[in-house]
Design brief:
Pathway: Porphyrin-containing compound metabolism; protoporphyrin-IX biosynthesis; 5-aminolevulinate from L-glutamyl-tRNA(Glu): step 1/2
Order of helices and strands: EHHEEHEHHHHEHEHEHEHEEHHHHHH
Number of helices: 17
InterPro entries: 4pyrrol_synth_GluRdtase, 4pyrrol_synth_GluRdtase_dimer, 4pyrrol_synth_GluRdtase_N, GluRdtase_CS, GluRdtase_dimer_dom_sf, GluRdtase_N_sf, NAD(P)-bd_dom_sf, Shikm_DH/Glu-tRNA_Rdtase
Shape: elongated
CATH topology of the largest domain: Beta Polymerase, domain 2
Strand order of the largest sheet: 7-6-5-8-9-10
CATH superfamily of the largest domain: Glutamyl-tRNA reductase, N-terminal domain
Strand content: 5-15%
Radius of gyration: 30 Å
CATH class of the largest domain: Alpha Beta
Helix content: 40-55%
CATH architecture of the largest domain: 2-Layer Sandwich
Number of domains: 3
Keywords: NADP, Oxidoreductase, Porphyrin biosynthesis
Structural class: alpha/beta
Function: Catalyzes the NADPH-dependent reduction of glutamyl-tRNA(Glu) to glutamate 1-semialdehyde (GSA).
Distance between the termini: 19 Å
GO molecular function, one term: glutamyl-tRNA reductase activity
Length: 455
């Protein structure tokens, strides 16, 4: 529908894709991804989400087909089965599920909600957020917050970092072990805290920026020290467990770093990968990546199944509310255009009539007010029927009728279309020219507007 906008989305996630495929679909950072999307034909809004488990993009266009074209080359190097396309409604529901933690590798984990909020602010800063995506992502974060306060979806919150520690624990005893965490970001910090809780005796935190590593080292309850990445090889040589979670675009661990370490469990939870695949061939070294966490996270999924069902019901309710909001807005935009067109005709014809009456002997101010009131009453009565029909059309998803109304009642009569993206004014988005006495539930036959569409 013209000027209303629909969302088209596409995603590559852990559900269908490998960690390498997710990495290839990522565009470096959210801001550059949003700017690239906005530069495409017919895109008015854009949003992107990139984490270690997913790379997603959303655009708003006037028609769904235009959105699909804008996203057609989102992940050219990823096999077809790993790329999932979403229409408007699928995108809305998926954003809610992501925010609630239902789409996470670790069901109910809290980190995704913060990642979604940060991506939203980045997209806003890049000029990608307008009224359609604002509603969609804001509703998603609202659902995510409700899910965590009203259900037990994140009870005993298990993060990707703590899941990595559980996986390490299945490979080697952690009580009294020596561990190395590479990366001092959110995932690295969570991994370090989980290792300390698991009873490691010695912990090394390595990071490109040493002060960040020092900060993480002071936050854990076991002896810990910080190193630069350049000095990590010596620490790994004595390590039983290595967990890597940097944001580096290049490998940070090669065979040279690990070849003298003996029996070592290496868990790579970075995206893109931190660990060169060649490390897997070293004797005594066991390497796991994000794809290998499924067994650990499945147990969490089972424990949270009841809470997940509650969240699903919550999403169903919030989804219907959001759809109703969109439907009402679309109807109001069409009604807005209709009243603007009628107001232009009314003003022109009233001015013509008053000019003729003045030429025939003049009018008093009271007579002029009577003519104006008559014109307003006629507009209100004539448009009462199509107003009701348009609202019904929105509820019934009858966008053809709304499209026909927008075509028939173009306020500029063939000129540039007015921007109705964010209507404001009395009566929830109706323009100032809409009479307040037009009833929402006027008893008018639906065939009135359908007859116009047939013409």
């Amino acid at each position: 529908m013209r000027n209303a906008g629909v969302i088209s989305g596409v995603r590559v996630s852990h559900e269908h894709a490998t960690v390498d495929e997710i990495a290839s679909a990522s565009d470096g950072d959210v801001r550059s991804a949003v700017e690239s999307l906005l530069a495409r034909d017919h895109v008015s809004e854009a949003f992107a989400l990139q984490t270690c488990n997913r790379a997603e993009a959303y655009v708003v266009t006037e028609a769904q087909a235009a959105g699909r074209r804008a996203l057609a080359d989102f992940a050219p190097d990823v096999r077809d089965g790993a790329v999932v396309e979403m229409n408007h409604e699928e995108s809305l529901r998926h954003l809610m599920r992501v925010a609630a933690g239902l789409e996470s590798l670790v069901v109910g984990e809290d980190q995704i909600l913060g990642q979604l909020k940060r991506a939203f602010e980045t997209a806003r800063g890049a000029g990608g957020i307008g009224p359609i995506l604002d509603d969609a992502v804001t509703k998603g974060t609202h659902v995510g917050e409700r899910a965590r306060t009203e259900t037990a979806i994140n009870e005993g919150a298990l993060s990707l970092g703590s899941a990595a520690v559980r996986l390490a624990e299945s490979e080697t005893p952690l009580e009294g072990a020596t561990a190395v965490v590479i990366g001092a970001g959110e995932m690295g910090t969570l991994a370090a805290q989980s290792l300390a809780a698991a009873g490691v005796e010695d912990l090394v935190v390595a990071n490109r920026t040493v002060p960040h590593a020092e900060h993480v080292a002071t936050e854990v309850d076991v002896p810990a020290r910080a190193l630069s990445l350049d000095a990590v090889e010596e620490a790994i040589e004595a390590a039983d467990v290595v967990i890597s979670a940097t944001g580096s675009p290049e490998y940070v661990l090669s065979s040279d770093h690990v070849e003298t370490s003996g029996e070592t469990t290496v868990i790579d939870i970075a995206q893109p990968r931190d660990v060169d695949p060649a490390v897997e061939s070293l004797p005594g070294v066991v390497v796991h990546d994000i794809d290998g966490l499924e067994a650990v996270t499945e147990k969490t999924r089972e424990r949270r199944r009841e809470a997940a069902q509650q969240v699903e019901a919550m999403i169903d309710d919030e989804f219907e509310r959001l759809l109703e909001s969109y439907k009402q807005r679309r109807a109001d935009r069409a009604i807005s255009g209709m009243y603007e067109a009628a107001e232009q005709v009314k003003q022109r014809e009233v001015e013509t009539a008053l000019a003729k009456l003045d030429a025939q002997g003049g009018l008093t101010d009271e007579q002029r007010e009577t003519v104006d009131a008559l014109a307003d009453a006629l507009v209100g009565q004539l448009l009462s029927a199509p107003t009701k029909s348009l609202r019904e059309a929105a509820v019934e998803d009858d966008w053809d009728t709304i499209q026909t109304a927008m075509t028939l009642f173009d306020p500029d009569f063939g000129g540039d279309e007015p921007s109705l993206e964010s209507p404001s004014g009395p009566r929830d988005g109706m323009p100032d020219g809409v009479p307040e006495d037009v009833p929402d539930d006027a008893d008018v036959p639906r065939h009135v507007l359908e007859g116009l569409a047939d013409d």
